Amino acid sequence: MADDADDRDTPGGTPPATPLPLLVVDGANVVGSVPDGWWRDRRAAAERLRDRLVPFARSGAGGLAGPLELILVVEGAARGAASVPGVRVEEASGSGDDLIVELTAAAGDRPCLVVTADRELRRRVAELGAQVTGPRAVLG
User: Fold this and answer.
1) For residues 112 and 131, is the Cβ–Cβ distance under 8 A?
2) What is the pLDDT, as a whole number, of residue 6?
3) Which of the four, 62, 70, 78, 93, has the lowest number of CB atoms within 10 Å?
4) How many whole angstroms separate alpha carbon 54 and alpha carbon 70?
5) What are the residues whose beta carbons fall under 8 Å from the beta carbon of 7, sequence distance 6 or more?
6) d(CA 64, CA 69)
7) pTM, whole model, 2 decimals?
8) Over its length of 140 residues, how does the chain's per-residue pLDDT go in tens digits?
9) What distance in Å separates the CA atoms of residue 39 and residue 20, rounded to the nearest whole number?
10) List of E strands, 27-80
11) pLDDT of residue 7
12) DSSP E strand stretches across the chain
């Protein structure tokens, strides 16, 4: 019998024959780009962003066609947000930027798009071959 957990984590419900393109979202940077009171409850703000990202796992974002593997990176007080079908939440034990760079490097040859407005992070992931777009790609 197949492992049902694998099917739930993949947009569309079946494991892909080839790895999906990767979309990595800098949670702190994207949440911080909208002054909506996120600083009062950072985990709740990360959860709202996570929920808003779910449709992008199927449709794509920022010029990267779906379906996608979508990872939301959280750090600090935003830790504790759980993954949901379509969006895997990765908690950075230290720097969220460093974890994003690690995830980008691990993507290998598959297409990778990082969502952030952080200039230094943009430079670091671009050096690894990732495409970069700003928060508006997922916020509208």
Assistant:
1) yes
2) 45
3) 93
4) 8
5) 13, 14, 15
6) 11
7) 0.86
8) 444 444 445 555 665 568 899 999 999 999 999 888 898 999 999 999 999 999 999 999 999 999 999 999 999 999 999 999 999 999 999 999 999 999 999 999 999 999 999 999 999 999 999 999 999 999 97
9) 33
10) 60-61, 64-65, 69-74
11) 45
12) 22-26, 60-61, 64-65, 69-74, 88-91, 112-115, 131-133
CB atoms under 10 Å from CB of 94, counted, come to 9
Note the pLDDT of residue 35: 87
41: tokens are 């409850």
* Residues 132, 136, 140: CA angle, nearest 5 degrees: 140
The phi and psi torsions of 116 (rounded to 5 degrees) equal: -165, 155
Residue 120 CB neighbours (<10 A)? 9
Write down how long the chain is: 140
